[in-house]
Every structure is written in structure tokens, then in C-alpha cells.
Amino acid sequence: MRYFITGCAGFIGSSLTDRLLQEGHDVIGYDNFSTGVEEFIKNARKSPRFTLIEDDLLNREAVIAAMKDVDVVLHLAANADVRFGTNHPHKDLEQNAIATFHVLEGMRANNVKRIAFASTGSIYGETEVIPTPEHAPFPVQTSLYGASKLAAEGLIQAYCEGFNFQAYIFRFVSILGERYTHGHVFDFYKQLLNDPHNLTVLGNGKQRKSYLYIQDCIDAIFWAMENAHEKVNIFNLGTDEYCEVNNSIGWICEFLGVTPKLTYTGGDRGWIGDNPFIFLDCARIRNLGWQPKLNIKEGVMQTIKYLTANPWVLEQRA
Questions:
Q1: Dihedral angle sign, alpha carbons of residues 233, 237, 241, 245
Q2: Is 298 helix (H, G, I), strand (E, B) or coil?
Q3: Which of 134, 204, 198, 142 is nearest to 172 (CA)?
Q4: Residue 59 burial by Cβ neighbours in a 10 Å radius (0-12, 13-18, 19+)
Q5: Does the pTM of the predicted model rise above 0.70?
Q6: pLDDT tens column, 147-156
Q7: Cβ atoms within 10 Å of 46's Cβ, excluding its own
């Protein structure tokens, strides 16, 4: 198969790229390196089956030209900056919604019929249905990121109806593991390396979140694409558990052997649009036969071990 991966140098995109190359597929990787990391595709670039195109998804003609002879699109590229989204609202619209439109137009121009899309559990806003299934009613959107991802989902579904595409939409919880560079585990670890005696925590530390290990996430994506056959296939991806932010602080501190003074900024959320309770019902993907191999604590530990072994990642995100 010949895959087209947007955001190929990102956390999830590069991990998908490596997996596909290991399985003998051809990969065209597309990235503008706004947040992608060259080191993450170092091994991929050694493969004759990998082609890198460094360009922006906002360049629609470049996207169309790059998608020639492609079988499947894996659309991972996005602006994932939920916390500071209100500082630059145009980024979510452009990089999540308009970029998705350009990807879909690239597919239409090249007669590519299958797409997998990295969406988010954030589209459920602050739902009253916990755990939240895929068919839960949507409340008012609480983040620009979630709203733009929901808009992208709508575009994909409309293209499936209008142009006979087949889509796999994955609503992720937060993903952890090797190459993770964005989120509270990364932030806490970096803070504690700089000052093991003090840790500032946004909110009250009681925010309840769910997480999924990167390799489990990749397994789920390919499992669904092999075993689900509807025109539009929507799946929550996560573990059947959640933890408090305070729990992950405890695990990180235990690993590092530190007992810092915790300073909370207050309130039940860390920033505008932060959902204080995310817990997805993943029965639909479970019913297909997929189960995660690692629980949340094990995923956090894998992440910390990776960051410890790769201090350059911290410098990269300085």
C-alpha cells in the first residue's frame, strides 16, 4: 500500500510512519515542520520506501500534487495548542479546518477514497454523559481546538457522502509515550528537572483525564481500518480508566525520587477550554476486538523513561 501521512514528523505521525515502513508499505510524508521534529523521521529517511515533502497543507496545489498514486491518507497534522488557542484563533481554523479541506480536495483530485483522521475527545465539550460514547449529544464547544476538529469531522463526513469516500475518524484521549513533547507530563517533568523542590500546577490538580499509550493508539487505528467497513467509522480511543492530575504528579515524583512543594493556581481547570473531566466510552472499538496493552500509569512511566533517555527532546522544546 502507498500511504500519505500529514504531520509525518510529529509525535503520532512519525510513529505511524515507522510502523508502516516496518511492515513494508510505501509512505509519502508531508510536514511543514512548524512543530514536527527532524530527529523523529531520521530512520524513516533512510528507507527507500519513504518520501518526504516539506510544505504546508495551506498550499492546496502542493497537497494535490503530492497525493499522486496514493491508496490511503492518514491525516495527523493539526494545531494542537489547546491551552493558548485564544491567543491566535486563526491557527485552529486554518491548520485544522482549512487544512483538512485541502487534504480532502487532494483526495478528490487524485481519486483517493480512504482517509483516517486524528480527531479528539475535546469535541464533546463538557458533556454530561460520562463515560462519553460516540453518539453522545454535543454540548456547547469549549475550546477553539475542539470546535475546529469538529468542523473537520463534518467536512470529512460530507465528502464521504458527496464523493463516496470511506473515513475512519478517531477521537483520541491524550496520547502518551515515546516522542511525546506536549502536555502536562512533559511540563511537570521539565519543571522538576529545573527545580525538584517546587512544582506549579495549573488548576487544582483534581482534573480527571484519560490517556492512551502511543503504540496502543497505532494498533487501534490499523485494527479499526481492517475490521470496520462502514462509509463513516467513528471511534473513541482510550483506556477504560482515568486518573487525576495529582495521580500523575505522584507517579512522576516517585520515579524521580523527589517530594516538591506543590503550588496550585486554583479553580477546577488549568486554562480556558480545559475540560476538567474527560473519560470516553470505548465500547465500540472494544467490540471489534481491540484492547490496550498498557494502563495509564504504565503509559506515563514509558513517557518519563523516554524523556530521561532523550534529554535533547527537552532542549528541542525549550
A1: negative
A2: helix
A3: 134
A4: middle
A5: yes
A6: 999 999 999 9
A7: 9
